[in-house]
Amino acid sequence: MRIVADGAVPIPSSIVDKVFDTVVIGGGTAGCVVASRLSESPNHHVLLIEAGADHSRAREPESVLDTFPRSYTDPQFTWPGLVAAQRESGAAEPFIQARVLGGGSMVMGMHALRGLPADFEEWQDAGATGWGWDGVRPYFQKLEHDLERDIGPYGTKGPIPIWRHSPKEWPPFAQALASVLASGGFARGEDVNSSSEDGLYPMPYNTHGGVRITAPKAYLKEGVRRRQNLTILTQAFVRKLLLSDRQAQAVLIDVQGRSVAIRARQFVLSAGAIQSPAILLRSGIGPASHLRECGINVAADRPGVGSNLLNHPMLRVACRLKTGKRHPHAIRPHGNSVLRYSSQKDGCPASDMLMFILGKTSWHPLGETIGALGMSVYKSYSRGEIRLNQSADQDLPKISFRLLSDERDLERMTDAFGFAAALLAHDTVSPMISKVFVPGKSPLISRLALPGFRNHLLSYGLSKAMDIAPPLERWLIRLVSAAYDAAAPKRELRDFVREATVGMFHPCGTCRMGSTSDPDVVVGPDGGVVGFRNLIVADASIMPTIPRANTFLSTLMIGEKISDHIACE
Ligand SMILES: Cc1cc2nc3c(=O)[nH]c(=O)nc-3n(C[C@H](O)[C@H](O)[C@H](O)COP(=O)(O)OP(=O)(O)OC[C@H]3O[C@@H](n4cnc5c(N)ncnc54)[C@H](O)[C@@H]3O)c2cc1C
């Protein structure tokens, strides 16, 4: 009998007494791939451990299935109490990361972008031999199932469907912006994933038949879950690895209020870019001085663990759309199209910027009246770090992104803000809009985004009242906006942009992959932690640099490629 345990039932002795071939730590995007692929071999016994609950055993919750990403505001799917400092100065703010079987795939925006071939050439140049475009492309193809194309560079049989919203069905706001961009010389492309050119493209989504396809749905289907050699343990928190002789001997987990050690021949860390470095640090692998400050015995001095924290910064320029020009409720995806363009700044590569055209900004009736241009530096250079708290509670790490601390990022984001403001002020677009604004850090916005009938009703009432009373609309928008003066001198504008920019949900780079002779590298090109024989990292944390794409597809690709490597050994 296959065993599927969760934190709600006693942990079977068959888990505690067994020595698994592989324990996969973290059942998120990459963890689901690794557990699924490694257990294809019937003699390879795999245990997948996840801190969150399993909501994918039967039909997933409606908020997860919805192709508007409603689930990310639902606290049952995310880490409670996780905060991050976005800027070099300023307090830490709540930061959303998934804590659920399926990880980010259960809450993400479903924008399925591959990145540019040059992104992966950059990985190879950074010492990740074999991870250039020719080395990674077969794994993108292996995981994808393009719903519209069955020839050329696309994957056609993989578990992750790729769907695009036909331009003919784009709502009025997206159509108007498309025509303005065309008149500004931006080309229209068919597929952002197979083209490296700048231009406006339909947004690819990992959805099929109007529902989200998550990593568990794609990789842990019923047939996979029935495998005798795959065990899934949820609601179990991995505290640390027990190390000796440069090997991981066991993993120590907290489950049902007790601490349990589980043994395996090999451990694959797939806890994501925030938690994988934290687990290594708690286990004694990291910068020696930091470990000592935290009272942790040093097993290996690896300064790179937790450094090189990368993310895409985003500034949303929002607008309340007039009635008749709004995103129809029935069109669930919020971003129909994406513009890739080049900042042409010194020291920055081509195609370094992305603009998301968002027809709505929340699941509730008021959010459906507000569109936005999401401006982002997609080849960003600012780097932050993950560290442990020195206090007794080291479960949640200290996260500092230091967004826009690199001058190139700040400069490009300031220009992007000007670009967005000009687009929304264009004669073709502005008649659709009653008010342009930059959302501030308003508790009202966060509270209203929480799921529930009460918020649905409240936002419906607010939206109707704003439609009939323009002074109320102006007052309410002012209440939740970050104040700015578009005519202010550039220096002041830069300060405003620095304050108003937030991190996207694409942390990566904190267990950087590269040449094993580089002292700052954490894992070699096979994913193995330098200096350890049976410890591998496979998730977004190993990316040496950030790709010019949202990170879901690249993370699946990492899971596929490392699984393949392990299986071939
Ligand atoms: C709100 C949101 C929106 C996003 N939108 C998009 C998008 O539209 N497109 C896109 O490409 N990408 C998007 N992403 C990013 C994408 O989801 C991530 O890049 C991807 O999921 C990373 O995969 P991972 O396996 O590295 O980590 P995760 O998917 O985060 O998985 C890590 C897993 O490990 C578990 N874990 C962590 N620590 C422990 C522990 N100590 N013990 C046990 N389990 C543990 C976590 O609970 C989690 O399930 C989004 C992410 C978020 C959060």
What does this protein look like?
The chain is an alpha/beta fold. It folds into two domains: 4-70 and 96-111 and 212-309 and 507-568, FAD/NAD(P)-binding domain (3-Layer(bba) Sandwich), CATH 3.50.50; 166-202 and 313-379 and 405-500, 2-Layer Sandwich (Cholesterol Oxidase, domain 2). 28% of the residues lie in helices and 21% in strands. It has 16 helices and 26 strands. The strands form six sheets. Strands 1, 2, 3, 12, 13, 14, 15 and 26 form an eight-stranded mixed β-sheet that branches. Strands 8, 18, 19, 20, 21, 24 and 25 form a seven-stranded antiparallel β-sheet that branches. Helix 11 packs across helix 15. It binds flavin-adenine dinucleotide. Flavin-adenine dinucleotide is lined by residues 26-31, 49-52, 72, 96-100, 103-105, 107-111, 237-238, 270-273, 275, 279, 505-506, 539-540, 550-553, 555.
Secondary structure layout plus pairing:
Blueprint: E1 4-6, H1 13-16, E2 19-25, H2 29-38, E3 46-49, H3 62-65, E4 83-85, E5 93-94, H4 117-125, H5 133-143, E6 144-146, E7 160-164, H6 172-183, E8 199-202, E9 204-205, E10 207-208, E11 211-212, H7 215-219, H8 222-225, E12 230-234, E13 237-244, E14 247-255, E15 258-269, H9 272-283, E16 285-286, H10 288-293, E17 300-301, E18 313-321, E19 335-341, E20 353-358, E21 370-377, E22 385-387, E23 398-400, H11 407-425, E24 433-437, H12 443-449, H13 453-468, H14 470-480, H15 490-500, E25 502-503, E26 535-537, H16 552-568
Parallel strand pairs: 1-12, 2-3, 2-15, 3-12, 4-23, 6-7, 15-26, 16-17
Antiparallel strand pairs: 4-5, 7-9, 8-19, 10-11, 13-14, 14-15, 18-21, 18-24, 18-25, 19-20, 20-21, 22-23
Helix pairs in contact: 2-16, 5-16, 11-15, 13-14
